[in-house]
Design a protein that fits this description.
This protein is an alpha/beta fold. It has a domain of about 170 residues. Helices cover about 40% and strands about 15% of the residues. Helix 3 packs parallel to helix 4 and helix 9 packs across helix 12. The N terminus is likely disordered. The structure holds iron/sulfur cluster. Iron/sulfur cluster binds next to loops. Iron/sulfur cluster (SF4) binds next to loops.
Length: about 350
């Protein structure tokens, strides 16, 4: 076993913490469109990693609760101050256990397969307090035989709950976002999250102990060429993931300017310039389409289970043939054998050549 007991300190300069007064336990989710889950459980509001490109602060969970954020943790602007506040949902696992005892219906869409995502609006192992909540949440879900997809940038910390994952057996999978292997570039826009190498090592350890893993290469950076993506996939293969999800970065979000500025501030000038260039629609289409094509090709060449997440907006801007190719990915099931999915036997469509 990896000889690391990795305990991220609960201290963080300027981090404001409190207890989340929300009564939310288990929420239906639209992430079935990405073949991830039908439900989500979030262990906190806010996330100490504060990734600059994060979409969460623009969601209703943050946008519609300004009074609560101000009252509980003195936050004036939930988006601008993202990464500096966390409201934990202490005791959530116990409440979820009771909720599941009473719940009589369960949503199972074709794409979501009734899976529960833990947790997609914050990192469920961002620190010890979140990890303690997550442990009880995973126990509650798997003991009720609910398929559970845990996503964290800190799988090393999650290793302290290896026993719970092992007891969860076929009902649990753990994955991590590994957008790029260049620690300096990743650190520029995900400054508080563990380095990519640590994420890989954590997943490898889970895999070595028989826990199914998955990886999300999301979002890959415009500084990466096909050789970089190949090298990254070869490293990821060591974790034997059941699927490698992939999506390019989306430059339309309200926080994209903050992402570019963070790269500049960190001295990552090439990353900043190449991100900035994506504001030009043609350049974004070229980068996004190239990355999606390369990932499909590399998946075949390296015999790795790739699943692409093409952006709806991108599909509107490309040729008819490319649009059909990208849409076919949106319609495909993830190749994971998780939640007793019926995996389609057809091969992915061929890639149309760009003019
Ligand atoms: S770890 Fe996830 S939820 Fe947290 S800031 Fe980063 S992208 Fe957002």
């Amino acid at each position: 076993m990896l000889n690391i007991r990795y305990h991220m300190s609960d201290k963080h300069d300027g981090l404001r913490t409190g207890e989340d007064p929300t009564k939310a336990i288990l929420s239906e989710s639209g992430l079935n469109s990405k073949h991830l889950c039908d439900y989500v459980v979030n262990v906190a509001t806010g996330c100490r990693h504060g990734c600059k490109f994060c979409y969460v602060p623009s969601t209703p969970n943050i946008r519609t609760r300004p009074d609560m954020l101000e009252e509980e943790v003195d936050v004036e602007n939930g988006q601008k101050e993202w990464g500096s506040y966390v409201l934990y949902r202490d005791g959530l696992g116990e409440r979820l256990d009771t909720h599941l005892d009473r719940k009589r219906t369960w949503r199972e869409t074709r794409r979501g397969q009734g899976v529960v995502g833990v947790s997609f609006s914050t990192d469920c192992y961002m620190d010890g307090r979140a990890g303690a909540i997550t442990r009880n949440v995973v126990e509650a879900l798997t003991s009720h035989e609910k398929y559970t997809r845990v996503l964290t940038r800190n799988p090393i910390l999650a290793l302290q709950d290896l026993d719970v994952f092992q007891e969860g057996g076929k009902y649990v999978t753990i994955g991590s976002s590994i957008p790029c292997l260049d620690a300096d570039q990743v650190g520029a826009i995900e400054s508080s999250a563990p380095a990519p190498e640590l994420r890989l090592r954590g997943l490898q350890e889970f895999n070595d102990h028989g826990i199914q893993t998955f990886v999300s290469m999301s979002p890959t950076y415009p500084t990466q060429d096909k050789a970089d993506l190949r090298a990254q996939m070869e490293e990821i293969a060591v974790c034997d993931p059941a699927v490698i999800f992939h999506e390019p970065i989306n430059p339309r979000g309200g926080n994209f300017e903050m992402t570019v500025q963070a790269a500049r501030d960190a001295g990552e000038d090439e990353l900043a310039a190449s991100l900035d260039a994506l504001r030009d629609r043609e350049q974004w289409i070229e980068y996004a389409t190239n990355h999606l094509q390369w990932m499909q090709e590399l998946g075949r060449e390296l015999e790795l289970p790739v699943h692409l997440w093409p952006d709806k907006q991108l599909i509107k801007y490309v040729t008819e043939e490319e649009a059909a190719w990208l849409q076919s990915w949106r319609d495909r099931q993830s190749p994971e054998e998780f939640a007793e999915r019926e995996v389609p036997s057809g091969t992915p469509p061929s890639i149309p050549l760009r003019p």
